[in-house]
Amino acid sequence: MSITICTWNINSIRLREDIVCKLLVEEAPDVLCLQECKSPVDKIPTEKFSQLGYSYLIANGQKGYNGVAILSRLPIEEADRQDFASLGHARHIAASIDNRMTVHNFYVPAGGDIPDRNINEKFGQKLDYLAEMRAYFIKIQPKNSVLVGDLNIAPRTDDVWDHKKLTKVVSHTPIEIEALGEVQSSANWIDITRQDIPEGLLYSWWSYRARDWNEANKGRRLDHIWATPDIASTASGSRILQNARGWEKPSDHAPVFATFDL
């Protein structure tokens, strides 16, 4: 059975309900993991999603900020939710998908503007969050699992438009890359996107500040799909739907896809 998973930082699920529906109609993933939903669970507009065949939803919501949700055409059950770094933020939820795999959906803190925890509390929170993610996965040692979401770090030199210019910019600093690498090592997660697309510049986020985002193409790969080694070899079809960044009232992130043959 093939299961296609899409992850997308939607930047307000209520404001961008129409383009979520557009994605569901045109791309038809089996599972859609959303971040930065900015909505309490009871305010998520589920009716249109259900009409399109996505009748299963689990979510960890929060008014005006954060928030993660998983929409599915397949039966899903909540498997876990964690408040890493005790921030009181809705940034994680996990689901069992049709009793075939567990999907962890994350929205890692952005970390503010200054990459120094001594003068920027948000950067410290980001590092603490990543440290607790690492400890969590060391403890549970996941199997048949996928980790997706806006991890707010572009780890490789070809995951950013200019490595040298961005090494001191939050999302591409060495300390963040090292912390993300430790999360990845915690369960030997495989970066599925780069397994399928091993070479070349690859981005999933372009700033709203850049009106010429498509022409300048000054992006970063902040959105990721990882898998545990036991199912990583079943993955294929990785892609980033860059043109979604140009849809009406777009998110500043593009959807990322991968298919697993389980």
What report would you give on this structure?
- With 262 residues, this protein is an alpha+beta fold.
- The chain has a single domain (2-261), classed as Deoxyribonuclease I, Chain A (4-Layer Sandwich).
- The protein contains 8 helices and 14 strands.
- It has helices at residues 17-27, 46-51, 121-140, 163-166, 174-186, 192-196, 213-216, 229-232; strands at 2-9, 31-35, 56-60, 68-72, 76-80, 92-97, 101-107, 145-150, 190-191, 205-206, 219-220, 223-227, 235-240, 256-261.
- The strands form 3 sheets. Strands 3-4-2-1-14-13 form a 6-stranded mixed beta sheet. Strands 5-6-7-8-12-9 form a 6-stranded mixed beta sheet. The chain has a two-stranded antiparallel sheet with strand order 10-11.
- A hairpin with a 7-residue loop joins strand 3 (56-60) and strand 4 (68-72).
- Helix 3 (121-140) runs parallel beside helix 5.
